[in-house]
Automatic annotation (TrEMBL), chain A:
Pfam families membership: ABC_tran, OB_MalK
Protein name: sn-glycerol-3-phosphate ABC transporter ATP-binding protein UgpC
Organism superkingdom: Bacteria
Similarity remark: Belongs to the ABC transporter superfamily.
UniProtKB/TrEMBL annotation, chain B:
Every ABC transmembrane type-1 domain range: 100-291
Lineage of producing organism: Bacteria, Pseudomonadati, Pseudomonadota, Alphaproteobacteria, Acetobacterales
Function comment: Part of the ABC transporter complex UgpBAEC involved in sn-glycerol-3-phosphate (G3P) import. Probably responsible for the translocation of the substrate across the membrane.
Quaternary structure (record): The complex is composed of two ATP-binding proteins (UgpC), two transmembrane proteins (UgpA and UgpE) and a solute-binding protein (UgpB).
Similarity comment: family membership: Belongs to the binding-protein-dependent transport system permease family.
GO biological process terms held by the UniProt record: transmembrane transport
Protein name (record): sn-glycerol-3-phosphate transport system permease protein UgpE
TrEMBL record, chain C:
Transmembrane feature ranges: 12-32, 75-94, 106-128, 156-180, 201-227, 266-287
Gene3D superfamilies: MetI-like
Membrane topology: Multi-pass membrane protein
Protein name: sn-glycerol-3-phosphate transport system permease protein UgpA
UniProt family annotation: Belongs to the binding-protein-dependent transport system permease family.
Highest taxon of source: Bacteria
Keywords: Cell inner membrane, Cell membrane, Membrane, Transmembrane, Transmembrane helix, Transport
Signal peptide: none
Annotated organism of origin: Teichococcus coralli
Amino acid sequence: MATLELSRIHKTFGGTPVLHGVDLDISEGEMVVIVGASGCGKSTLLRITAGLESPTSGIVRIGGRDVTALEPADRDIALVFQNYALYPHMTAFENMAYGLKIRGVPRAEIRRRVEEAARLLDIDALLARRPRQLSGGQRQRVAMGRAIVREPKLFLFDEPLSNLDAKLRVQMRAEIRRLQRRLGVTSLFVTHDQVEAMTLGDRLVVMNQGRAAQIATPMEIFTTPADTYVASFIGSPTMNLLRATLEDGGAGATLAAGGSIRFAQPVPGPAGRPVIIGIRPEHVTPEGDLPVAIELVEPLGSETVMHGTLPGGEAMTVRVQGTAPVTSGIMPVSLKQHLHVFDAETNLRLHGLASA
Amino acid sequence: MAGALVKERGAAADPALRASRARQRRDRWMTHGILLLGVIIFALPIWITLVGSTHDVNTIGRGEVPLWFGGHAVENYVAAWSRGGEAVRNTRAVPAGIMLWNSLVMATLIATGKIIISLLSAYAVVFFSFPGRMAFFWMIFITLMLPVEVRIIPTFQVMVDLHLTDTMAGLVIPVVASATATLLFRQFFLTIPDEYAEAAKIDGAGPLRFFWDVVLPLSRTNIAALFVILFIYGWNQYLWPLLIITDTGLETIVVGLSKMIGRGDAQNEWNAIMATAILALLPPVAVVVLMQRWFVKGLTETEK
Amino acid sequence: MRKGIIFKGKLLPLILMLPQLAITGIFFFWPAGQAIWSSLLREDAFGLNRDFVGLENFAEVLADPTWREAAQNTAVFALSVAVLALSAALLLAVQADKAIRGSGLYKTLLIWPYAVAPAIAAVLWLFLFHPQIGLIGRALNAAQIAWDYRLNGGQAMLLVIIASAWKQVSYNFIFFLAGLQSIPRAVLEAASIDGARPVRRFWTIIFPLLSPTSFFLLTVNLVYAFFDTFGVIHALTQGGPAKATETLIYKVYVDGVENLNLGASAAQSVILMIIVIAMTAVQFRFIERKVHY
């Protein structure tokens, strides 16, 4: 158990920068999830933490010690790979025991630890099997077991659930969370799946193009996204983003689609400043004077998602409880609560929650 | 300066860190060292030969092993190419030009022949159903197990009976049946989706037309890869040409070269022999180096 | 296999296969049958009568001390060539597989000897080890080590082994490299996170995962040493001195072509065929097993 500290991590692959100075502090026993679209640099960041890549510049500290130049073996970490990376010629037991054997742990101790981990993961009946005789979920558990028996300072997970089917993924997700809490090991988990990120992490790091766009708890990220990327990446269906200009005093804004809205607290800036108004589909009030031309209605049972366009051509999604008030034609809506205001140039959030 | 200082201090502060840096550096040097040694061991005989082929016969005969080029390159190669050596003491010496031509013709015919024959029979096995298909398949399989070398004497008898000794046909025909190539093409044809053939049928193409318009173009890379391997195989034939060719006009360069070396203590014309050796290995080496990608692909896939 | 018949017709496929059938029939099966048949016969001294003698030729061959010596030479030769060529190739392939500068160039420079004919490889090494004109041969003699492979049987054997192995390293190198590249990167990374240093990683992970490749190459190398090295021996030593480098295949050639002892030669051919078939069978059995990984 230890802290992890990444400071100003830069990485360039053959002239192409992939990480532009990422800072991240993880406290003891915390589980942090890095989430982002493919190619955002999240896996590279994890591999730098593991020591499988070295950063172009920046420092990695584990438990306060600078490990930037150390090899993976000397960092006392464990990594669960996306495709498990089990040794194909070894049994499940041998796979889990390998790291301990190398570290010269006595045989009896190895046996005790592997069996304990196997019980914990419910794979004690499978220890004599080779990886190819195991199902995807079982391989996943062996890979977890290999990490657990080492009792490392740090757990790293590289999209470990993405090769499982949907049902198993949900089950393993809960299990990983339960295990991590129980063992209390500091963990860094990489995924592209926002649901996985929201449910697993004490805190999330949303990465975008080699930068940490926001580092915060899942709820903070949901309620106060730091920029339009985070706003649209987290939440489903995604947040509506509408062009607008600030009105006098910042108390409200005029939508490009027509009509004006009021903010609860004024937003700083001169009149005419271009902004982007964000509102989640479930926060749109299905009555008012902003006409949405409905194009598609998706009834999901307990709720209904409606897709349409505003007069200016901007897309608008509305989520309502129960059945749809209209199934085609024009539906008037209004934007009153839970409004997010972003600068149109920098895409950054302009201040705290601006809702009426 | 300051950066170096900081780095220095950092390294000194953490012995594990310094050890790991040193280990990485040592590993890198080891790797380069081993590879370089390998390259040198591979290249040394060629280098000696190449250098030797540019000196006159007495320099080498005296045993002064030259390590750098001499000034007789042109005359040695001209002599080897056109006369098979300067003095032609050895009556069997054949001009390298003729031998190279023979080798080229033989290797090309063997490679092309093997590819054509294998393509046709693999096509028949995969796309048709006919009686004796499996028997045929096993027949190919067994030939795979019997290299020319183990049945050399009786095969020679057959050649005599068919009056094929001392002919180019005799050099080529007995070795153009290829189990490896047939198996490779069969393997590849099995990956061609049935739908292609079905679409061709609907378009009104018969089996030969389908072969020509679809199967052959799809096989292009496989053919190229195989050609490289088979050309080298053909060029490097030794025992077979040694047996059936007595006519010096049909001598191939690989066999001819070894015949140039006198068996006793006779004074050998080393410079001509070395020049001929270079000429003999140049074409197949050039093929491998220039077509490396295809060659590696062909090799690793035929033997799977 | 195919789901159904793609094209109908019986004549066309037979025509397509005719060249292959004819050549295999005339040049493979007929002579192989001849070899088996004449291995069971014996000609009298005048070549007039041929008697059926059963397995007598085989018994004679197996009891013949020169054949036994050739068999022993072959075993020593083939094993040495295989071990030397395999270990050198593995060492080089492991190095070339590392991400270092110039690895592409190294690969090219290590692959080309594949193209050199065994007989030419022999001549190239002769230029190095010839006692009078060879760089190394002269150096050895200058260092008071009596070196003449034309007189010393052990030295002759050493030289044919080196020349034969040298040529085969490239082939093995290509396959080892392909084998190394097919090991998933993540498995190696997992091992390094588990704390395995390079040497340990090699022996506990890489080497076991390469074992199908190694086994395949072992049989290929043995077959190579048995048959393809005829050219090396013929060009370098002609089986001498005093039959010290006479292998089984070379003996077949000598007995059949030079001594014209056809019955004995045929029996030897048949024995060689059995050896090849056994080796191939072992190889195929193993290839089936390798599916495990």
